[in-house]
Amino acid sequence: MDVKVLELEPAKARLVVAGEGHTFMNALVEELLLDPGVDVAKYVIKFQFADPEIVVTTREGRAPLAAIRDACGRIVSSCDELMADLDDWQ
Questions:
Q1: Which residues pair with 54 in a beta bridge?
Q2: pLDDT band for position 43 (50/70/90)?
Q3: What residue numbers bound the domain in which 81 lies?
Q4: pLDDT of residue 89
């Protein structure tokens, strides 16, 4: 996954996440919005084959890149739990 930082401020980040589509971006935005330090999390794919651009704004001193990193970690943890549960059925 290739990430390009377009804008980075203390309470705002705008990134392009190359090679991803709606599936991952929806999961990331949903997970970001569970963080009480995140004010806004949204993404847009401007054209059918364009890379998505995500915008995250934060409050209460929360660093936007830390919020994204933590959200990704929670997604990985959820996937690990699902894989472990599926292993129990094999």
A1: 15, 43
A2: very high
A3: 2-87
A4: 84
**Non-local CB neighbours of 14 within 8 Å, separated by 6+ positions:** 5, 6, 7, 8, 53, 54, 55
Average pLDDT over residues 40-63: 96
CATH number at residue 48: 3.30.1360.10
Sort strands 38-44 and 53-58 into parallel, antiparallel or unpaired.
antiparallel
pLDDT interval class at 61 (50, 70, 90):
very high
Distances (CA, A) of 6 to 3, 12, 17: 9, 11, 11
Residue 88 has pLDDT above 90, yes or no: no
Q: Round to whole Å and give the CA distance between 17 and 2.
A: 6
Residue 71: CB partners within 8 Å, gap ≥ 6?
28, 31, 32, 34, 35
Cβ atoms < 10 Å from Cβ of 9: 10
Q: How many domains, the chain?
A: 1
